[in-house]
Amino acid sequence: MKKLSLLLVSIALFSFVSLNSCKQASQPAEAEEEVMEEQVEEVVEEVVEDTAMEAEAPAEEVVE
Questions:
Q1: C-alpha 48: how far from its chain's center?
Q2: What are the b/e assignments for 29-43, b being 16+ CB within 10 Å?
Q3: How far apart are CA 62 and CA 9, in angstroms?
Q4: Which candidate, 6, 9, 10, 54, has a CA 20 to 30 Å from the CA of 20?
C-alpha cells in the first residue's frame, strides 16, 4: 500500500509539472500567433486592394 501511494504521489507531481510547463510554453506561441494573424491580415488587405485596382483599370479603358 505504501508503494502504491508513493507511485500515485509521483504521478500526480509529474502531471502537475507537465501541465505547468505546457501552460508556460503556450504563452509565447499565442503571442507569435497574434503577430502572424496581423501579418496575414495585412497581406490579404494588399491583395484585395491590388485586385480591386486591376478590376477598375479595364473598366476605365472601356469608358475611354
A1: 22
A2: eeeeeeeeeeeeeee
A3: 79
A4: 6
Task: Give the SS3 label for residue 2.
Answer: helix
Per-residue pLDDT of the chain (64 residues; tens, 9 = 90+): 677 788 888 889 898 888 887 766 556 666 777 777 888 888 888 887 777 676 665 555 555 5
Counts of helices then strands in the chain (DSSP H, E):
1, 0
Pull the grid cell for residue 51.
485586385
The whole-model pTM stands at 0.42
The whole-angstrom separation of Cα 22 and Cα 27 is: 9
